[in-house]
C-alpha cells in the first residue's frame, strides 16, 4: 500500500482462533481475542498455542492480533498478568488491550499498548493523557458524538507537548483513535458499571458481568406512580454505524471495531464481510485512504448483518441524542419483520410475505404484554396467496397469535447454512515475470505491497515446436497458484523467443519463488512499536480519584502517584465503598425516553423537573438520579448482603 496514504483498520472480534482465522479471511485487518486469562470475557479464553496459530495466519496478510488483557487486577494477579503478557508477545501478538494502569508499572515486553474502552475515554484531556503515558491506540467511549470525537482527535494530535510548552515531540506518534461500529451496547459508560458486583459479586471490570441491564423493571416516579411496567428499561438496541463510516473517518477514527468476543462464527463472518465491503467502497473512492493489511476478499454470500443476532439497530449518540435507542420490549433477538398472519389452522398458519421461508427457520412474535414468543418451523410450503408454515408446536396464545399479527424471523436457515460452509477467500494479487538468464530462466514475483522474490533455474533453451501453444502453456502454468495466498495479476513473458519449458520445471520454479516471497513478506512485515511515555511524566487531569477510577492494586496506585494524583480511593471491587453510590453511570436517560426531560419540555410543559425515579425488579429497588448539566443518569444502590465473590483461576 502506498506510504503516503492513511490506513483504515477493520478490527473484528474472535472468541477462539478458528473464528479469528475466519475474520481475517472475510476481511479483517486486525482481530482482538482473549488469551488464557484477564480478558474481560470469562468464557472467551484461549491457549497460547491457539494464539500462536492465529498470529501465524494473520501475519501472512500483514494483519494484526490484539490480546485483551483488560480486567482490573488484584495484587496477587500482577505477576501472572506480567507473565501472560510475555507469553502472548512470544507467540507473536502485536498489541495488548489493557484497562489496569498498574500494568504500565510492570516489566512488560516491548509490545504495543492499546487503551481499552474500559478506561472510559470521553474527554480530550483523558485521551491526551493516555497517549502521553504510552498508549498507541485508544478505544473511545461508544457514547461520543461526531463533534466530541473530532475534539479528541484535535487534542491527541498535540500529544507530546506539556501544558507549559515543554516535552519532546521527536519520535512521538499521536495515537490511533478506535471506535465501536457494530454490536451490543453496554448501557453504562464502559468501566463505570458496578451493579453486577454489588448484587452478585461478579465484577464487570473483571469480566464476569451478570447483565442486570437486560432484566425487566418497572419505572416509578417520585410519587410511586408507574411510568413503565415490566420493561427492559436498561437494555439498548445494538450499535450499527453503517451509514456513518465516512463521517467517523472525517472526525478522526482510523480503527473500526466490531463488538462480539462471545458471538458465534456466523455473526463474525457476516459483520466482518459487511463492513469490509463498506470500507472498501470508501477506500476505492478516496485515494488518500488504504487498507491496513494485504489482500482482497471475495465472499460467496451477500452480507446481511440484520440476520445475525441483534436487538434492533441504533447509531446511538454519534449524531446526537434521540429517543429510539432502547430495546425495551426484549433483550433477545426478535428478528426481521417478515410478514403477517392471514389464516390459522389446527397445526399450521399462513402468512403473507415476500420472504421465502424454509424448514428449520426460527419465528418470533410479540404476544400479550409485548412479550417475545417463538417457535421453530418444521415444514414450509408455498400456497396460493402466501406460505403455509407447520411449526414444531402451535402456540396456545389466542390474544397474541392471531390473524393480522406481525411475524418476525430470527433464524434464516438458508442464510445460516451458507455461513456454515466456506464463505470467503482472501488473496494478494501479484505480478509475475518470467525472463531469461545466461544459463536458463528466472521467475520474479512482485506482490501488491511491492515485495519481490526471485528464483532461477538452469535449463537449456529449446525452441518450441508450436510457439503459440508454448506461450499459452507457460502463462497458464505460471498462473496456477493453487492453495497459496496469492492470485495472479499481470503475467509477463520477457523472452527472446518462445522457448519450450516442461510443466514440471515451471511448477518447481514457481513453488521455489513463492516460498521465497513468503519469507520476504515476513521480513518486510510492519511491526507495531511501543509508544514511549513522555518524560517527565504527564500530570493526570485530576488530583483526586474516587472508586470510579478502578484502582485495585498497588502498582496502579504507584502509577497515579507518579502522575501527580494525591488522593486515591479503592476500586469498588475492593468492597470498601460503603452505602448508596452510583452503581451505573449512563448517557441513556429514562426521563428523556419517556418524554419527561426538563430540557425538552421547557417552553411547552410546565412543572417537569428532573426528580429522582425508581427502577423496581422484584424486591430490588434502584434509585435513578439525573445530572441534567452533564446529561447523565446515575443508577444508585448499595452492595447486597450475602453475595458471593467469585475468584477466577488463570486458564492454562
What does this structure look like?
Helix 1 (17-25) runs parallel beside helix 2 (48-60), helix 4 (124-132) runs parallel beside helix 5 and helix 5 runs parallel beside helix 7 (245-251). It is built from 14 helices and 32 strands. The chain is an alpha/beta fold and 652 residues long. The protein is globular, with a radius of gyration of 29 Å. 23% of the residues lie in helices and 28% in strands. It starts with 5 loop residues before the first strand and ends in a 15-residue tail after the last strand. It folds into 4 domains: 6-185 and 237-299 and 301-307, TIM Barrel, CATH 3.20.20.380; 188-232 and 579-652, no CATH class; 332-420, Beta Barrel (Thrombin, subunit H), CATH 2.40.10.170; 427-524, no CATH class.
Describe the structure concisely:
The chain is α/β, with parallel strands linked by helices and 652 residues long. It is built from 14 helices and 32 strands. The strands form six sheets. Strands 1-2-3-4-5-6-7-11 form an eight-stranded parallel barrel, surrounded by six helices. A six-stranded antiparallel beta sheet has the order 9-8-30-31-32-29, with no helix packed on it.
